[in-house]
Design goal:
The protein is an all-alpha fold. The chain has 15 helices and 2 strands. The chain has 2 domains: 81 residues, no CATH class; 285 residues, Na+/H+ antiporter like fold (Up-down Bundle). Strands 1-2 form a two-stranded antiparallel ribbon. The two termini are 30 Å apart. The C terminus is likely disordered.
Length: 368
């Protein structure tokens, strides 16, 4: 009871911060409200952590706290000791991919043979729906070519591990979700550059072979190292299994904050429109992905899985690609915005579906 009261008090304090922010906005003092935004999101995240139904929003809320700092104090996240912090982006992604590899083994891909229809439909939906919707939105947008190309880039990226968590919460097919994520990720070094060449070539120059090698370094090599580490250590590295989700979340948060700081000026100019287009992209992914699965008469549990896999993309990988092209402050903006938004919408969708159980008992892979 006492603990619940503490979290409720934190939510009350966050409400006070919000009122102070609204006062600063209405009196034209928003440029001085940086610490108020930080206080609002920090206390809100702490308050959310005390309620089971809201815990899924804690990470995203903390991301918004970091983004607020990056927008108000960008110099803190652009350089350190004369070194550009954008150099951290690719190593951070490699750490995340290594962590993904340590949780995998060759037997995880047995789902491909057990349910090939679901895997094929899920992967094909991801490779068709999000790239094409991204291209359409980029063509409609009023943005400069490099920023528009970022919308296409997030659409051409595979899903990330966040989709597996949301599939679990939504009573979807977690085994299928993990398999689709794994296969789409392993295909990314070959398919993402080709898709970008065809769909984003009119916005920016795309060197397909160079992009392939960049993605191989970010995905294939660290995942391979993680698989090998898992094979050699077996159950002897359970501490790493517990630590990697936290490390991955911190890495994703740092990537988003660095990108926000690097592209602050552009983001302040186009932020509202970009958020709207990215939200449309994300919601279309859920909606069309679900409809695509139902078109092929997939059962409800698998349709939910495919909807989540299509709607939730690997923003970290997209950011790394943008950084490798030297366009983190432009092409990297859409992935930076997409990440927090998809976590909010994904949590909402998962909560909705969690209250509507399927007839099939949910897969409890993530409990193991």
């Amino acid at each position: 009871m006492k603990n619940r009261s503490t979290y409720s008090i934190a939510l009350g304090i966050s409400a006070l911060f919000l009122m102070a922010i609204l006062y600063m906005v209405t009196t034209g003092q928003i440029e001085d409200a940086g610490w108020l935004f930080l206080g609002f999101f920090a206390t809100l995240a702490f308050g959310f952590s005390g309620f089971k139904a809201l815990k899924g929003l804690v990470f995203t809320t903390m991301i918004f706290a970091g983004v607020s700092l990056a927008l108000y104090y960008p110099s803190w996240f652009t350089q350190l000791g004369g070194v550009e912090l954008t150099v951290l982006i690719i190593p951070l992604i490699q750490i995340i991919m290594f962590g993904m590899g340590t949780t995998m083994s060759l037997k995880d891909f047995a789902t491909v043979f057990k349910t090939p229809k679901g895997v094929f439909i899920g992967v094909s939906a991801q490779l068709l729906i999000m790239p094409l919707v991204g291209f359409a939105l980029a063509k409609m947008s009023p943005f400069p070519p490099e920023i528009a190309a970022g919308i296409v880039l997030i659409g051409c990226s595979p899903s990330g591990v966040a989709s597996n968590v949301m599939a679990y919460l939504a009573n979807a097919n977690v085994a299928l979700s993990i398999t689709i994520t794994s296969i789409a990720t392993l295909l990314a070094p070959f398919l993402t550059p080709v898709l970008m060449k065809f769909l984003a070539g009119e916005f920016v120059e795309i060197d397909v072979l160079a992009m392939m090698w960049t993605i191989v370094k970010m995905i294939i090599l660290p995942i391979g190292a993680g698989l090998l580490f898992n094979k050699l250590t077996g159950d002897g590295a359970q501490w790493l299994d517990r630590a990697m989700p936290i490390i991955s979340m911190l890495a994703i948060g740092l990537i988003i904050v660095i990108i926000t700081a690097a592209g602050r000026d552009s983001l302040l100019d186009i932020g509202g429109i970009l958020m709207l287009l990215v939200l449309i992209h994300n919601v279309f992914g859920y909606t069309i992905g679900y409809g695509y699965a139902k078109l092929f008469k997939m059962k409800e549990q698998d349709a939910r899985t495919i909807a989540i896999e299509v709607g939730m993309q690997n923003g970290g990988l997209a950011s790394g690609i943008a950084n490798s092209l030297g366009k983190i402050a432009t092409m990297g903006l859409a992935p930076a915005v997409f990440g927090p938004l998809m976590n909010i919408t994904g949590s909402m969708l998962a909560s909705y579906w969690h209250g509507k159980p399927t007839q099939t008992v949910p897969n409890r892979v993530l409990d193991q």
